[in-house]
Design goal:
Layout lengths: L2 H22 L3 H21 L3 H26 L11 H24 L15 H10 L2 H22 L12
Length: 173
């Protein structure tokens, strides 16, 4: 077994174990910490696939920014068993159905995947230059639409978060 195989299987075990920790943990803060470790394991897989840009973006954006935001929101909400809403049977059934559909899609994708050895794959497949060419040549419309969507989400967050200034009441003396 080569070093590549050991790294792959180690990162895979870490990703699956931490993902199970996210789901099975009763403490929301522990779930966020497990999710951060899962993102680090996925970034390790990106590095093994020679996609360094995706690995760095995954760590900076997801593990860095979004997970810190999740952690602060969870801490500010101060969740405990008394305040936490109970899950209804319908929500649990919807979760089981969507999980099953996801499992079927993953099995289908794995059956149709090609098994090209790492030695025969192009060396520059995950480099930033190639990613930029594909992104701005083939996928320029979805890229621009998503940028407008993110801009509108930021404007909406500012509008929602803005405090309303109460009009001064007329004091009758």
């Amino acid at each position: 077994m080569s070093l590549y195989d050991l790294l792959f299987w180690g990162l895979s075990a870490m990703a699956v174990g931490c993902a199970l920790g996210v789901i099975l943990s009763r403490n929301p803060v522990n779930s966020v910490m497990f999710l951060i470790l899962t993102f680090f394991a996925i970034s390790g897989h990106y590095i093994l696939m020679n996609a360094q840009f995706l690995a760095v973006v995954n760590i900076i954006v997801y593990a860095g920014a979004i997970m810190v935001l999740f952690l602060f929101v969870i801490m500010l909400m101060n969740l405990n068993a008394d305040v936490e809403p109970q899950k209804s049977q319908l929500i649990q059934l919807a979760g089981i159905i969507s999980g099953g559909v996801l499992f079927i899609i993953l099995i289908s994708a794995l059956r149709n995947a090609s098994n090209v050895p790492i030695d025969q794959q192009p060396v520059d497949i995950g480099l930033i230059e190639n990613l930029g060419k594909v992104l701005f040549k083939d996928y320029v419309l979805p890229f621009e639409i998503s940028s407008v969507l993110f801009l509108s989400a930021m404007i909406g967050a500012v509008v929602i978060g803005k405090k309303e200034i109460a009009a001064p009441e007329n004091e009758a003396n």
